Request: fold
Amino acid sequence: MNKIIILLLLFNKLISFNEASNQIIARQGQVSFFSYTSVENIEAKNNQVLSIIDLSKKEIAISMLMNAFEFKKSLMHEHFNESYIESDLHPKATFKGHIIDFDPSLKVQTRIVKGIVVIRNISKEIEVKTEIQNINGKYSIAGNFDLSVKDFEIKIPPLLAPNIAKMIAVKFRFEYEPYEK
Amino acid sequence: MKEVSPVLKISAAEISEHYLEDEKKSDSMYKGKVLEIKGIIKKINFLNNRNTLILQGYNTYSNIICDIQNVNKKEFDKLELGDKINLKGICKGFLKDVIILNCVLVNK
Reply:
């Protein structure tokens, strides 16, 4: 009986070890966004975005703090957090998805990532074309896509509407390392 | 940031332990505040063209990511892994690590 328990425990440990070794993590991923209008251009960068990829499940998860976006002007930072994103109420934006036809052994591949982005507690399904590189086991993933301000019920006062684009261009790049738990 | 006095002083291990225990409560204590953090340098990196110090957290999987502002190159280049340092910055919250932005080194 005892032997069986020990075997079971060992087996469990092996499984969890395998799961862990199949995950890679980026703790300082970069996500930036751009709003281009004839009035002004707004750009912000977040350099501490978290992402975990499960290589065997082909799953990717991303999480970021909305108040960690850095702007050129502090007033933009204030408007973004207090009025538009309301980051006290919705501190994080997340993404969870699948990398379709992902082959971890390839050096370079262009793949579609399909999943759900959550901003301000509002979910939206997106598909993003990404370039994935694997240089000697060091993975990186990069791409860009557009998000509509309207989809996330972001209220922009009429006076400021000409300053903010209807579609926001988002760019991302993550460099991963093995995730050892 | 150099002239701002911190709201509170805390060690890297302590703040990371608090966040691992209860993120919500820790947010209410630390988020948006200027903190002075004492810790040990675990990593130094230049990802995204930033100067980042990673301080050892409560365990090996959860650290403190400190983004250094207006780097004094001479001062920064002297830093080595294992150094005990104090820095001041604004706590932004927690993902797998505690995130501190606009950091400046505090000379003791």
